[in-house]
Amino acid sequence: MQKIGFAEALDAIVATDRRYHRDAYVFLRDALDYTTKQQKKSKGAAVRHVAGPELLEGVRLYALKEFGPMALTVFSYWGIERCEDIGKMVFNLIGSGIFGKTEQDTLEDFKSVYSFHDAFVKPFLPETAMTPVKFPPALPAPKLS
User: How many CA atoms lie within 13 A of 96 on its CB side?
Assistant: First the structure.
């Protein structure tokens, strides 16, 4: 049996499941690579498996790095509105043989890990409310003589 390539797998996935943009799957693959590299840096050893919540954290960090304050807009354009959407994409890739999984991995691992507003909007909001500008006291009105 010949192993299917990533591009061919994406063709099959987007032909049968039109919920998510093709570019979203490319981003997800790159986010997985980013996550494994970050884990390797912090743990010092090769990472064998990335669990759902770990992948979501990698997706969050990679999206902020790549898209900054536009991350939420890009995700929305791609059809991604919440963590569960990332999970559904992961399981589409698992079903096509591109990603692997353990027996412990489930779609529930991706449920409500973080809110997209907290993950992609809050980092760009001002840290404190702006303090009102204090004007000097008004000068007395001139006396008319």
Answer: 21
